[in-house]
Amino acid sequence: MKKASLLLKIALGFIFTLFVSFNIVVDSAMATGQFSKTCEDITLDGSTLSAFCQKADGYTLNETSINLDEEIGNLDGTLSWGDHNFSLTCDSIGLAQSLFTRTYVLAAECERRDGYTYIPTEIELDEHIANIDGTLTYE
């Protein structure tokens, strides 16, 4: 009887651990970017990304925007998350959408440290831009 009780406790502990781990993975997946799945009429004006995004109710749209200069920088000619003011050293800034994944990419030609060489670069916006109840947010 003790052996059965011990096995039951081990099995329940394993199931509980598995359940908690699954919830952490799912919560993390839901918390990262993916604004393009719930937003429409997505545009870029300079460094400002604008869209109409669904609110939490699933059908009300909210007009919203975010200044990407606050979250993206130019690191020696490469667009980089967690830095600032990419638009000061980048030209030909534009927005593109992948035909296959429907994700949005910020593309530009950015200045290298030498001050005169520009190279093409891009960064996937769905990596860190999210729609939180109808508002574009950096995550």
Automatic annotation (TrEMBL):
Entries under SMART domains matching the protein: CVNH (SM01111)
Coiled-coil region: none
Domain (Cyanovirin-N) ranges: 34-138
InterPro entries hit by this protein: Cyanovirin-N, Cyanovirin-N_sf
Pfam families: CVNH
Top-rank taxon: Bacteria
Cystine connections: C39-C53, C90-C110
Protein known as: Cyanovirin-N domain protein
Native source species: Gloeothece citriformis (strain PCC 7424) (Cyanothece sp. (strain PCC 7424))
